[in-house]
Specification:
Largest sheet: 3 strands, antiparallel
Number of strands: 3
Shape: elongated
Distance between the termini: 29 Å
Strand content: 5-15%
Radius of gyration: 20 Å
Order of helices and strands: HEHHEEHHHH
Structural class: mainly alpha
Strand order of the largest sheet: 1-3-2
């Protein structure tokens, strides 16, 4: 996964905080209170973000309009998984992570691991589908929409989690497991 620089993150924050499409000029205006940037700089950043897959671009009359390709939560989750993939011992990394979360965050994780979610919702019942996957054109064509789960997916995920817990063995001494 590509990483975001400070300016790219500021531009993405503007797009994530907006429903719908924005032109580069509109993004520049919304960034104006944070930074004094030229319109062309914002345009260059948006083009770079499009190449990285973070934004979508569409032609609107004389200008292009931009919107985030994925939600902020989806990008953060992907980044967390990418970092987790850098370790040789995922179990230890996960145990350390779980040991560092707050009790409220531990409860969210607990619910996510124990409660099967409905298609397109996370453990809190919030909609996780991306805008382009919500239309009827993506449903009922022999494939499932991204972010959805089937009963078989849930069964496979639960079996996989159980195998990982068995392989990890009992929790280490001195480590507090809030889950």
């Amino acid at each position: 996964m590509a990483r975001l620089g400070d300016l790219e993150r500021s531009v993405m924050d503007v797009l994530w905080d907006t429903d719908g499409w924005l032109t580069a000029r509109e993004v520049a205006v919304r960034l104006d209170h944070e930074r004094d940037l030229a319109y062309t700089t914002v345009l260059t950043v948006l083009e770079r973000l499009e190449r990285k897959g973070f934004v979508q671009r569409e032609r609107a009359e004389r200008a292009h309009r931009y919107q985030a390709s994925s939600s902020r939560d989806a990008v953060v989750a992907e980044a967390m998984l990418a970092v987790l993939d850098t370790t040789d011992d995922r179990n230890s990394a996960l145990v350390r992570f779980v040991g560092s979360v707050s009790p409220a965050e531990a409860e969210i994780l607990r619910r996510a691991l124990t409660r099967p979610t409905e298609a397109g919702q996370d453990a809190l019942g919030q909609d996780t589908r991306e805008p382009e996957t919500m239309g009827p054109e993506t449903m009922g064509q022999g494939t499932k929409a991204p972010g959805t789960t089937t009963d078989q997916d849930t069964t496979d995920q639960n079996a996989h989690r159980q195998r990982e817990r068995e392989e990890a063995g009992p929790p280490g001494r001195g480590i507090v497991h809030p889950l």
